[in-house]
Amino acid sequence: MTKYKVFETERLILKPTSEEDTEFFFELQNSPTWIKYIGDRNIKTTEDAREFIITKIIPQVEKLGYSNYTIIRKSDNSKIGSCGLLHNREGLNGAVDIGFAFLPKYHKKGYAYEAANKIKGIAFDEFGIQELYAITTKDNIPSQKLLGRLGLNLSKTLTLPNENEESLVYKTGHNKI
Q1: The CATH number of the domain where 151 resides is what?
Q2: In this predicted structure, what is the pLDDT of residue 92?
């Protein structure tokens, strides 16, 4: 894979997810909070995780320069979560969706806000994206609060393709002062 830009915050490194993240990606996709709030994406083996990275994540970063980022804590180099921009999310008519997920032991430490705020900034400033959407479940109150802190507002409800329950759709545009 071509070298793509890596971003940093005070405590975190955000690097494009690649094949070297396969084991971590497998662990994250099978964590209890991922399954509860994002859903089972049928990543049952590390080979499934590798295939997902190769077929979904890498092509988007190669085409657009952005995709999913693996979040690494600077203090100990631990892979703690992911945050990224999904282009053409199903059900959003070509819009860009910001998403985030962290291993449970890294919840409630401010990492999700730190990473997502950086991703939001680069979406607007580096990649010229004009509006961002985010989707969350009605019972994911921590995600809803975080989206509000990021400046996204509840826009509508939507039942995504292949889903049974309505999700909440948040939206924001780039407002330069």
Answers
A1: 3.40.630.30
A2: 80
